[in-house]
Amino acid sequence: REEYSKITGFAYVGGACVVNKRLEKVNSVAIIEDTGGFSGIIVAAHEVGHLLGAVHDGSPPPTYLGGPGAERCRWEDGYIMSDLRHTEKGFRWSPCSISSFHHFLNGETATCLYNSPHEDESLPRVLPGKLLSLDAQCRRDRGTSACFKDERVCAQLFCFDSGSGYCVAYRPAAEGSPCGDGQTCNSGRCIVEHENIIPDYSQHTVSYLRRSDETDDYEPFNLTSTRSINDLRSINGGPFIPSTTPSSTMAYAPLVTSSPPAAAALFTSESPKTAPFAPEHGGLSCVDTMAMCPSLVARYSHIYCGTNYLTKTCCASARHCPS
């Protein structure tokens, strides 16, 4: 039970539309946990990506599903199919995910997705950030308040953690949340608010992918979770793919107070594919993993500059440290 305490989502890779009769269960579902503060929105997108055939960035395709996989897209780039979503890329699909969607949707297994949708009741078209304040979102998540209320919340909502004394973030503020100066969050960016209504696409459902003549005869069985279950085997002999959607992949930031805080640390509970953020390949991987890195260097360079923490977590901003 403790192994699953930090799991926030489950889904079968390529499971949309598939009923696995041999196992007597439906594969075309995902399970999402939400605290009531919209913490499950990005997780839901991640799990739907699995259902539509996308694996985690950096991973090969499942043998039963085929397709392009995602080995050419780096986990560290922080798109939706990673759990290192610390920038606005966390609101977008990687090129590998998009290729996987094309592969899956052009297969015979995706037949049910081409039906005519219907609605029993229309949903409100109001952005969720208009329904709960930043403090309210943090209270639902951690029982505390928001540390910052500026543009940083659009990429990462930092909530005060009473246990550690740090500000902790593991997801962005909900779309439409205020981010200062009358602006609101939109896809990871803080922009001038034009309207707070979600566009209604329900009357414009168009099948834009050309169906292929190829058929895929398989039964998806891979359940994505945070468990490491390499030793398990499915009923039809294939290996389970260990993957993660943890609630505990968090970035830590010091609470801004009148006196500089002690050094913080970056913590990822289960990310076996995560590599340290250090300059390599000509500096291509030297990126900031937190939106607050520039201000961290600007305000507390005398504490953080020269530390291993800053080099790994705020590699790009660390270049601006005083020599």
UniProtKB/TrEMBL annotation:
<dbReference type="GO" id="GO:0006509">
    <property type="term" value="P:membrane protein ectodomain proteolysis"/>
</dbReference>
<keyword id="KW-0645">Protease</keyword>
<dbReference type="Pfam" id="PF13574">
    <property type="entry name" value="Reprolysin_2"/>
</dbReference>
<dbReference type="GO" id="GO:0046872">
    <property type="term" value="F:metal ion binding"/>
</dbReference>
<feature type="binding site">
    <location>
        <position position="56"/>
    </location>
    <ligand>
        <name>Zn(2+)</name>
    </ligand>
</feature>
<keyword id="KW-1015">Disulfide bond</keyword>
<keyword id="KW-0325">Glycoprotein</keyword>
<dbReference type="GO" id="GO:0004222">
    <property type="term" value="F:metalloendopeptidase activity"/>
</dbReference>
<dbReference type="InterPro" id="IPR001590">
    <property type="entry name" value="Peptidase_M12B"/>
</dbReference>
<keyword id="KW-0482">Metalloprotease</keyword>
<feature type="active site">
    <location>
        <position position="47"/>
    </location>
</feature>
<feature type="binding site">
    <location>
        <position position="46"/>
    </location>
    <ligand>
        <name>Zn(2+)</name>
    </ligand>
</feature>
<protein>
    <recommendedName>
        <fullName>Peptidase M12B domain-containing protein</fullName>
    </recommendedName>
</protein>
<feature type="binding site">
    <location>
        <position position="50"/>
    </location>
    <ligand>
        <name>Zn(2+)</name>
    </ligand>
</feature>
<keyword id="KW-0479">Metal-binding</keyword>
<keyword id="KW-0378">Hydrolase</keyword>
<dbReference type="InterPro" id="IPR024079">
    <property type="entry name" value="MetalloPept_cat_dom_sf"/>
</dbReference>
<keyword id="KW-0862">Zinc</keyword>
<feature type="domain" description="Peptidase M12B">
    <location>
        <begin position="1"/>
        <end position="117"/>
    </location>
</feature>
<dbReference type="Pfam" id="PF17771">
    <property type="entry name" value="ADAMTS_CR_2"/>
</dbReference>
<dbReference type="InterPro" id="IPR041645">
    <property type="entry name" value="ADAMTS_CR_2"/>
</dbReference>
